[in-house]
């Protein structure tokens, strides 16, 4: 188990465009495993490679006890909208209101570089959008409605 250092907002690496993964290597497999370890350790529901300083299009998500790896993800379809609190491991201790689609269909590759499609609603749809944004240097704090707030006991669950 290897926990990597999570970069926080203000770090330039979070504002860069990530490169596509061409093929799976032992090094990339290790990165994915470390990303899961780091996300679980931080009690997050998603983590993107640039958050651990690696400019590759890799996202890990686990918001309902089902872990997903999304490599080179492309959002194919969105529907509806949801407005609610969002947080990010790279913006510790803060939450802000963001409107996202309520349904997302994404195409990606798994850790064997096999293409697959994933559909998500609710929190999973939000997590997919949030993490895919990271791969293009976008952070949720760019699109919050109102103020960035400090986490309180009430919002910690989000
Ligand atoms: Zn984030």
Features:
158 residues; alpha+beta; five-stranded antiparallel sheet; three-stranded antiparallel sheet; 2 helices; binds zinc ion
Describe the structure in your own words.
The protein has helices at about 25-40, 120-135; strands spanning about 45-50, 60, 70-80, 80-85, 95-100, 105-110, 115-120, 145-150. The chain has about 160 residues and is an alpha+beta fold. The chain has a single domain, classed as Alpha-Beta Complex (Peptide Deformylase). The longest helix is centred in the first third of the chain and has 16 residues, at about 25-40. It is globular and about 45 Å long. The mean pLDDT is about 95. Bound molecules: zinc ion (ZN). Zinc ion (ZN) binds next to helix 2.
Summarize the structure.
With 158 residues, the chain is α+β, with helices and mostly antiparallel strands. The protein has helices at residues 26-41, 122-134, and strands at residues 46-48, 58-61, 68-79, 82-86, 94-100, 103-109, 115-121, 145-150. Zinc ion (ZN) binds at residues 88-90, 130, 134.
């Amino acid at each position: 188990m290897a926990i990597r250092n999570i970069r926080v907002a203000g770090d330039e690496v979070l504002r860069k465009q990530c490169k596509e993964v061409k093929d799976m290597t032992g090094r990339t497999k290790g990165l994915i495993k470390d990303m899961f370890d780091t996300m679980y350790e931080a009690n997050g529901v998603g983590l993107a490679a640039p958050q651990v300083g690696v400019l590759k299009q890799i996202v890990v998500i686990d918001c309902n006890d089902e872990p997903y790896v999304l490599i080179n993800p492309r959002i194919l379809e969105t529907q509806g909208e949801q407005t609610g609190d969002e947080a990010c491991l790279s913006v510790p201790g803060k939450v802000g209101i963001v409107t996202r689609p309520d349904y997302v269909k994404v195409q990606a590759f798994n850790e064997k570089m096999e293409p697959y499609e994933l559909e998500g609603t609710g929190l999973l749809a939000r997590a997919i959008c949030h993490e895919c944004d990271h791969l293009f240097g976008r952070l949720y704090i760019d699109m919050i409605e109102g103020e960035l707030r400090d986490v309180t006991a009430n919002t910690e669950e989000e």
